[in-house]
Amino acid sequence: MAYDIDMIKKVYDQMADRVTKARDVVGRPLTLAEKILYSHLWDGEATTAYERAKDYVEFSPDRIACQDATAQMALLQFMQAGKKKVAVPTTVHCDHLIQAKMGAAIDLQSANKSSSEVFDFLESVSNKYGIGFWKPGAGIIHQVVLENYAFPGGMMIGTDSHTVNAGGLGMVAIGVGGADAVDVMAGMPWELKFPKLIGVKLTGKLSGWTAPKDVILKVAGILTVKGGTGAIIEYFGEGARSMSCTGKGTICNMGAEVGATTSTFGYDESMERYLKATNREDVAEAANAVKEHLTGDDEVYANPDTYFDEVIEINLSELKPHLNGPFTPDLATPISEMGEKAKENDWPINVDWGLIGSCTNSSYEDLTRAASIAQQAVNKKIKSKSDFGINPGSEQIRFTAERDGLLQIFEDLDATVFTNACGPCIGQWDRSDRKGEEKNTIVHSFNRNFSKRADGNPNTHAFVGSPEIVAAIAISGRLDFDPTRDKLINENGEEVMLDEPQGIELPTKGFAVEDAGYVAPKEDGSDVEVKVAEDSERLQLLTPFEPWDGKNLTGAKLLIKAWGKCTTDHISMAGPWLRYRGHLDNISNNCLIGAINAFNKKSNFVKSQITGEYDGVPAVQREYKKEGIPTVVVGDHNYGEGSSREHAAMEPRHLGVKVVLVKSFARIHETNLKKQGMLGLTFKNEEDYDLIQEDDTFNFIDLEEFAPDKDLTIEIVHADGSKDTIKAEHTYNQPQIEWYKHGSALNLIKKQNAA
């Protein structure tokens, strides 16, 4: 039986009435995304037709998932909310704090020793508040969710941007910051601006070397890293139905890389097969009873231009294998063109590592397709020119793959099988051939490839591809290798070609596992004591942020003017900093250390207007805070893209930054800033970014009149005494302004619970 089956059946029992009512209110056929959104309204049945990209709407998600790095801060906040138990089914998954180095067994043992304090904290908090706990080694959150919790037509939120992976099972699953999750855990509505809708019509059928990963690599090239912002991407058509459930999950997973709110597919036979294969026949049966409501209306898919804000059409029969990168996941290149492009850009041709796995591509089918290539290398006596690393998606995947001999195939190529965890995908990789100033290339089946993402080295050029393409290129050792046409020389000096990959959608013997790694919480956890040592370096109880004094903000100094791409990795790095995710003051020592200063093009090197000297961003900001001087961060386009980590909002808030003023925001980061009581503003005229000088002082002269849909006026005072007055826009509605007034959304929750 599936987890939380009664909750799932309740969703389905009310879906027909809610979808029918929504269709009447909206007055037209509905997309799948609209059906799920309107059937999860906080107030029940629809009474209003919401305007896309304008109306803020309150929703009632079905469940929550948290990974260990973000769960620490989320649960530290929930502990302040005054609740005895979470209001909706919630799980915590320990997958981020395990460093890939020697191999699964040794690395897991090392993580359990080095992070025992954090794991114990998370398990005890989970036990106290009725949260399901998945132990270290159990698997990567999104694969575990797909195998156990995702269900067609459901809505979930998760404290990780790749929560969207569950769209592969027909959910609307959305990545959020911890404060958003706390709202829902506490039994409150979750707010989202009603998304735009992008339709992707898939025709034809994948074959040969082309994989589901290539669909999203192509879409990323079309939309870019910000083209999906504020939108749900809905895939449909014969091509969508022809793909496996886990292949759909891969496509949805990487939708985060185009800024999409989420991505989803309509319920079909592949999802039914997957539910049954993962011992959820009861969910499949319940879904089949309402399947007409678990996909878009026929009229929508017949005339998509009428119902979507944007439509993209891709013929899978013509789609070619891609590699995306380096340094950004939207730089899409067909592998047939990679050699020429690499030469033009002076990208290193020799490939040092091929990494397969992560939450994006670690299913059984993924491993079989990559293993079919690896087996050919063994059979045809081709010696791999690159190192291999494998991260299975879950203990169930690992156990089944080992039983079926898949892992042995990789080990025969001297691959290292890492723990069922994120590992190199999030920078948790102690790379054995650590590179210095030398430019180098790696290929992987992950989702992100920002500078320094995998190994902390800015000289590493990371390229994203499907598991089978990664396997082929790693075996060849060359970035310009095209397995569809190029030959290799084997150990006998013979020219050989790799045959097309062969995959198995679901294991013929079924999935198997001895210990999946799940720990159920106590029914009544009131007697569970959660301890946080006062001298802990890893955990710190939170102190509420100060509320706004209701006055205009004046005399604010520029902390940094960030130039170019500034992701959450730049604002709050992962890698070794993950150890401090539960200690706000300690992790704040990485605040904006990766951002590039527009005035000297250096990272972590900004001018203090107190001393006139240059120093690291956290050090300069701590001096401003000590002196009681407010500060402003200025940024470029799509500021805060990437991970959902709310630390990127909490750290500047903790250190005394008052305002983040940018050309445009990534969705999750803008919300995180609002939740933490920060002012997140955008230039009304983005050219005003160029007016900002290094020694500027900012006066927000009409903040006392802060109101929805009302621009704010900023007086910029330059060092020579000259001034510029500009306008800034914002997207705060009245409830969000209340968060700002109270100092944070959590402060408001506590006040309401105390009333």
Automatic annotation (TrEMBL):
GO annotation, biological process: tricarboxylic acid cycle
Domain Aconitase A/isopropylmalate dehydratase small subunit swivel: 557-686
Cofactors (names): [4Fe-4S] cluster
Pathway named in the protein's UniProt entry: Carbohydrate metabolism; tricarboxylic acid cycle; isocitrate from oxaloacetate: step 2/2
Gene Ontology terms, MF aspect: 4 iron, 4 sulfur cluster binding; aconitate hydratase activity; metal ion binding
CDD domains xrefs: AcnA_Mitochondrial (cd01584)
Family that this chain belongs to: Belongs to the aconitase/IPM isomerase family.
Protein name in the entry: Aconitate hydratase A
